Amino acid sequence: MNNKKLLLSLLTVGMSLGTAWAIRGQFGHEHGAAWAGSIGSIAIILIANRKDWFAKAFQIIVSGAMGWGIGGVMSYGLVVGYGRDTEFVNVYYGLISLFVIGGLYGFIGGGLFGLSLSNSSKSPVAWPRLLVEMVVGAILFYFFIIQQYEWLMTPPRDESWAGVLGMAAALTWFMFRTQQYSALRVALFAGLGGGFGFAFGNFLQVLGHVSEIKFNFWNVMEYSLGFFGGIGMAYGTFTSYWENTTEEKYSKQWFPVLMLVLIIPFTMWQQNFRMDRLEKTITPLLSSSDQAIELSVRWDSLLLILFAGIYWLNVHSKSKSLDYGDIKKFFIGHFGLYMLLSILITGAFFSTYRIEQYLYIANFVIILYLLSQVDVDFENHSISWSKYAKNLGIVLAFIAVLAYIAANSHDDIKSSHKRFGVEIPLETPKP
What we know:
This is DUF3464 family protein. The protein is mainly alpha-helical.
């Protein structure tokens, strides 16, 4: 029975972060990843149903959001193209690179989320020191890996992954030094899940292209990253020991709430709901150019964000405590707004050309049903480095099998790239 509870709990979190990460495909970058990360974090808090976590819920949620959002600086479009090649060495390189990128998303997201779960007045996390160390780690790793050694993953694209790797290294050392082993378990499993999910998603994308089925298989890849990353973060959380801090008093957390309901959403709106982008996405769906619809989408989306933000700030200002019902209401509203903005920016509110937009709604309904059914019994597992190394080896070997299948499943396809084996002309061609 306990295994069934755990599996249903993992499925619920996986679907939550998977759906949110697929929605993130319309928005991208740090703000989209942060919003998706916040949804996965809320799902775990709801399933855990711990009063001591409710007291600091928004701090936990924004930590998970910021952690998952950091990885949004990394470029991976070219790496995905390596996975679409016909040579095993290029495909495996592409999938392993995606494993690293997805792993960094999950590791930092899970790590900061886990640290917030451990944070209390008796054992406070030194957040300022951690942030400084992560910034220094990013600078040092980027300088040596990219500037000095020139170990480039995606030339000529941006190589910010090296800076994010430095942040992950600093975060790891901080958790070791402060003996935050439960948070480290969450980071490790979220990283393993996110890494596998990204590589496996690219494999599914290639097979989807070969099948010639008309569907957004790029979105399938994004869903896979969030799904497995969410499962990893949830597994690390539900199988670790967390000190009970029910004596902690609820305090209004203005900054986390402000970040979640106004700053992140407004940034996403400012970066995405531009007229030039709306003209490219909505105008082709119309029989004739109608700027009024595009203007309506632009300003209505802003009003939705502002109304929702003001509502949540008003509710929070009057709250003297938070319970399960309060968090679930926020989950529904926050998730629902994210879906609605996706439907608006794609034009799916008047055109059915984007089928996946309606699948988000179906996923959302299933998630809400599962949340009403699931609960979890926490287990207390320590970090088994040998077992984790074994699991990592199995995952890397399995990715090799996926790379072999993908490389031999098709001839040359659009947007494929080579990292190795590119033919260099013997002489410069004449103009």
